[in-house]
Amino acid sequence: MQLKTIVLAVGLMATTALTGCSTIGFSYSTASYSSVVDAGYVIPAVPRSKIPPQFLRQEVRYDGTEQPGTIIVDTGAKYLYYVLGGGKAMRYGIGVGKEGFEWNGTARIALKREWPTWTPPKEMIQRRPELAEFRNGMDPGITNPLGARALYLFNKGGDTGYRLHGTPEWWSIGKAMSSGCIRLMNQDIMDLYNRAEVGTKVIVR
What we know:
Elements: H1 3-16, E1 21-23, E2 36-38, E3 41-43, E4 58-62, E5 71-74, E6 79-85, E7 88-93, E8 96-97, E9 105-114, H2 122-127, E10 149-155, E11 158-167, E12 176-178, E13 182-185, H3 186-195, E14 201-204
Parallel strand pairs: 5-14, 8-12, 11-13
Antiparallel strand pairs: 1-4, 2-3, 4-7, 5-6, 6-7, 9-10, 9-14, 10-11
């Protein structure tokens, strides 16, 4: 085994130990990231070769105690896990909040929306006045920051303001660039959207 492969294996084991998840060998998923037409919108293909392979959608082993249907977000490793049951989970690469916008805790999916409208919070408009034109909402579409799907997170205090959502910026996956929301490639959020139900428990670590 080459040294590079050994280093990769050690790095993966160190990362997944935090969540009770581990990769199934090194056979990365063949999940499709081709262009797709959805609700009349043409979602561009994602260039797989430019995405670090660990951030492609793939099935992994899950050794944790959370029930099937639970979502676990590992912000440090930039992974989101959907627990499948039977000792398995589906893992997605994600983009997370930049420094100063990180968060953690437990929430639930209260709403699901296809091709959602995006309304920037007033705090964001204060930081970026050019967004004021969208204070009443940006229409759905390919350039909408929420992408093709959004899952709205609530806790005991109500709407957290955070979302699990798609993004047209595939190059941001694996990085800390958002204002706290968890972003996935559009093809991945569509897959997760079809799996997760309203009421799903979401744990952000």
